[in-house]
Write a structure and sequence with these properties.
The complex is a heterodimer of chains A (369) and B (518). With 369 residues, chain A is an alpha/beta fold. Helices cover 32% and strands 25% of the residues of chain A. Chain B is α+β, with helices and mostly antiparallel strands. The chains are: A alpha/beta (369), B alpha+beta (518).
């Protein structure tokens, strides 16, 4: 069905994508919706354009809340500046009820949001398996897919509506119209396997904020790649002057001091690939995050050498994310750009702050590799 | 664009609707006839995006709202249960596929809202006249907003979407600059009739200087009619120049712009549309707590005492619990509203009001105070008619209530960089809440002078009450004002405790400190 809103919606999408009205680009904010995945709250990006008005600055204003707590206790989350206040009332009595969403749906949403292409798995094992998912109910279908409960319920509803239901003799006879069937959707499921190898610099200059950025970004990368591949493995490597493999928890918690030898991590990564993941069977995704400082220019040359000869030939794509930190010089990304200019197998992305995470994910995954 | 309501409800729903309406009437609710329409979720999202009006004028922000609502619905984050619009007859939307208990709840809730629309004084300003037949209120806002849609579409066809939409953007930046008192004030005297006295030699009544005429028949040649008229016009213009406009600070900034800005006919049309709709929605913003509280109070009573059957009560309770959930970072208007009505009903049932009650300081006596006067129901109906959120909270938010409901104030702690609970002290909570509700949460801005610096510049004033404006947006709003006014605009406000002037002259933004004499 075509809706009147489609015009306004198309117009909005065009503005967001920068096709028209550049002056509005500056008001585009990363709005977000909060979904839940198990106990964790995850944020789903939704584009939003603010219409500037005379409004109060949020932090000076404060507010009134309700619940337990004593003076000085923090309030969970950010109450948001005048959240909803200006909207209040323009839609009277609109009730919204919150429910949860699944991680699969979340990944679809992300994919749609960032216009991510589906990944084309490389090599001969790019055989696609089709898988049916039951996603809803419809009125026609084969008997084997009849949804008994729904059928019964609609028959019951009809009989009650017609007044032909007798509680003393509760016989329900479904007619053709009452029949309900499960409906399905066919999803393409690549049968190939993939491995994600995360590497991170944990030297002193990578602070909590930097690691948080890596954590959020890798969550989304995981989520998206999981949607693309049936079997997926993740490995974690941390490094300062030396590298070692750790589990996910340690990966995000560890903080060391001391120098940074990126080549140590790349060596370990290359060994891992050569030992565990034959390139004919695996799609390989090495990700490396750091603040861009390396011990020496000489070590950087070693890195380039390992990348060029051992890691890149084996991988779908090698991704380097540079997180801004107050201490880092940010040199490494420049080196990579210089050595791999125009190279298809390398993607580098600068992540200045949290707001840039979404863009950075798009950098990494937007090429569909 | 025409739109036909499909108001033929399925029989089962219709029967419930009729019975709920009867019960509501028996409880004393007094509402307009109400049309219910059942919508599939995409239509529901569409209409919600348009603020309840399917025929509203086109603008991208409705598309933005639609995207947010649809995403949120499709990914299972939330769904809209109902919508109701203030119109005669009232129009309410039900979501297709909801459980019957939800539909009943929504209908009960809607009758509460419609009673409120009809009886609360703030909504009287949305009356558009009286019905000649039955003397009832006329509120044809569905038609009015459809007409607005037609007007904007007409100009869009002639001038192009881009031109019109960009101007709407500017108008929307000014949308909240209206005067809540305006609908209750006598109409402003017109410019001509407000002239009084003759202290000024150029004041009214004085003829322009004409060349001397010695022979009457020559008059028309020496001082031709057009010349005389031109001289008169010039005099009038001079007088206009000298008189300060507006004479007193004008809070209806949009109205002021309509009267005085150099607008093209199409711009005038568009700005009028935005202003009229802003005034239409204003009462809803002024009574959010009261209106939602009232609807929730009545759906609770209707459902539990009359409507819900045994099998539905658990589902009902679950829905209501989620509607009434509280959060630490925000006030839930549904919750605060219903609790206040319940509190008022209980107090007026037990006679806990008046001089004797106010003066009683014996804790025990107060606790067991029950004069069995049973005035609770009568009182809450009176309250729903005569108050808005500000006066409601001012009058009925008591110290006991604040303690019972665990209300507190919170604020930003710079040192920890986080929001923290500040205090549970009654006066502080109340004044914070009142501050937030004042002027429907908007800063109070008025036009001071339309001939600032004697250069036809527009001067606005922000009535500062302790909270600064969001500065990065001030610049953008000033640009929007400039777009309409076509001359430099300046806002006087306070920035970090210093009186300041913020100014956009058409090409550059400037901020400067002001002397004390603001």
């Amino acid at each position: 069905m075509s809706l009147k809103i489609d015009q306004d919606h198309t117009r909005f999408r065009k503005i967001v994508r920068g096709k028209i009205r550049d002056n509005l680009r500056q008001y585009i904010s990363k709005g977000e919706m909060l979904g839940k995945q198990g106990k964790d709250v995850v944020s789903i990006p939704v584009p939003h354009i603010d219409i500037p008005r005379f409004r109060f600055g949020g932090k000076q204003q404060g507010g009134v809340g309700q619940g337990e707590g004593e003076a000085g206790d923090p309030i969970g989350g950010e109450p948001g500046e005048g959240d909803g206040r200006d909207k209040a009332g323009s839609d009277p009595g609109q009730h919204a009820i919150e429910v949860e969403l699944s991680l699969e749906e979340l990944a679809d949403l992300l994919g749609e949001e960032l216009s991510l292409p589906n990944i084309k798995p490389k090599g001969k094992s790019a055989i696609v398996d089709q898988k049916e998912r039951y996603v809803g109910i419809r009125r026609v279908g084969p008997n084997s897919l009849r949804h008994f409960k729904r059928t019964f319920r609609s028959a019951l509803r009809r009989q009650i509506a017609l007044g032909s239901y007798d509680p003393a003799r509760p016989v329900i006879i479904p007619t053709r119209d009452d029949m309900r069937y499960r409906s399905w959707k066919t999803d393409d499921q690549p049968v190939t396997n993939a491995v994600l190898i995360y590497m991170m610099d944990v030297s002193g200059s990578m602070g909590d904020e930097q690691k948080e950025i890596v954590r959020i970004e890798s969550f989304w990368i995981d989520t998206w790649l999981r949607r693309q591949y049936k079997g997926i493995e993740t490995r974690f490597i941390i490094h300062d002057a030396a590298a070692r493999e750790v589990d996910r928890d340690t990966f995000f918690r560890t903080r060391e001091s001391g120098g940074t030898m990126i080549s140590s991590a790349y060596k370990l990564c290359a060994n891992m690939i050569e030992h565990d993941y034959p390139t004919t069977e695996w799609n390989i995704y090495p990700f490396h995050f750091s603040d861009g400082d390396n011990w020496s220019a000489e070590d950087t040359l070693t890195c380039v050498d390992i990348l060029r000869n051992r890691i890149i030939p084996a991988s779908n794509v090698f991704c380097y994310g540079q997180v801004d930190s107050p201490y880092g010089s940010g040199q490494f990304i420049k080196d990579l750009r210089q050595h791999f200019v125009g190279h298809e197998g390398v993607i580098v992305s600068e992540i200045a702050n949290r707001d840039r995470i979404v863009e950075s994910i798009r950098d990494f995954l937007g090429k569909g590799k | 664009m025409s739109y036909v309501f499909q108001t033929e409800l399925p029989r089962e729903l219709r029967e419930h609707q009729q019975s709920i309406a009867k019960h509501a009437e028996a409880f004393g609710l007094d509402f307009y006839p109400t049309l219910f329409e059942v919508l599939p979720y995409d239509r529901m999202n569409e209409i919600a995006a348009y603020g309840g009006f399917p025929t509203r004028y086109p603008h991208w922000r409705f598309g933005m709202e639609y995207e947010r609502l649809s995403k949120s619905h499709e990914y299972g984050l939330s769904k809209i249960y109902e919508m109701v619009i203030n119109n005669t007859p009232a129009v309410a939307y039900l979501l297709e596929g909801n459980m019957m208990v939800d539909q009943k709840l929504v209908m009960a809730h809607v009758y509460g809202h419609v009673d409120f629309f009809k009886n609360n004084f703030a909504f009287s300003v949305t009356n558009q006249g009286r019905d000649p037949q039955d003397g009832g209120d006329v509120r044809k806002w569905v038609d009015t907003l459809a007409n607005h849609g037609a007007i904007v579409r007409k100009w869009t066809r002639r001038l192009g979407t881009e031109t019109v939409e960009t101007f709407i953007d500017a108008c929307l930046s000014l949308e909240n600059l209206i005067d809540p008192q305006q609908p209750f004030l006598p109409p402003a005297p017109s410019v001509a009739s407000s002239i009084d006295g003759a202290e000024d030699p150029t004041e009214a009544g004085q003829e322009p200087h004409l060349l001397p005429v010695h022979r009457d028949y020559m008059a028309g040649f020496i001082n031709p009619e057009e010349f005389v008229q031109a001289q008169r016009d010039k005099l009038t213009a001079e007088r206009e120049q000298k008189r300060k406009t507006p004479e007193a600070p004008e809070r209806d900034v949009l109205g002021f712009l309509l009267r005085h800005a150099p607008l093209q006919p199409w711009e005038r049309d568009v700005l009028s549309v935005v202003r009229r709709e802003a005034y239409y929605f204003l009462p809803q913003m002024q009574t959010k707590i009261m209106n939602e509280g009232w609807a929730t109070y009545w759906h609770s009573r209707l459902m539990t005492e009359r409507v819900a059957d045994g099998t539905e009560i658990v589902d009902y309770a679950e829905r209501t619990a989620s509607v009434l959930a509280t959060s630490k970072g925000n006030i839930n208007p549904y919750k605060l509203g219903i609790e206040l009505y319940r509190n008022i009903a209980a107090r007026w049932d037990r006679g806990q009001f008046g001089k004797e009650w106010d003066e009683c300081e014996d804790y025990d006596q107060r606790r067991h105070w029950d004069r069995r006067v049973g005035l609770g129901q009568k009182k809450i109906f009176e309250v729903r008619s005569l108050y808005n959120d500000v006066t409601f909270v001012d009058e009925f938010l008591t110290e006991d209530f604040v303690a019972d409901q665990q209300l507190f104030t919170f604020g930003w702690n710079r040192r920890n960089d986080r929001y923290e609970v500040q205090t549970r002290e009654f006066e502080a909570v109340k004044s914070q809440l009142l501050g937030q509700l004042t002027n429907a949460g908007n800063p109070i801005i008025s036009v001071l002078d339309s001939n600032h610096e004697n250069r036809g510049e527009l001067l606005l004033h922000h009535d500062h009450h302790g909270v600064d404006l969001k500065l990065e947006w001030v610049r953008e709003v000033l640009k929007a004002l400039h777009r309409v006014w076509q001359r430099p605009v300046e806002l006087h406000t306070v920035v970090e405790k210093k009186p300041s002037a913020l100014r956009w002259d058409g090409s550059a933004y400037a901020q400067r400190a002001l002397g004390k004499a603001v």
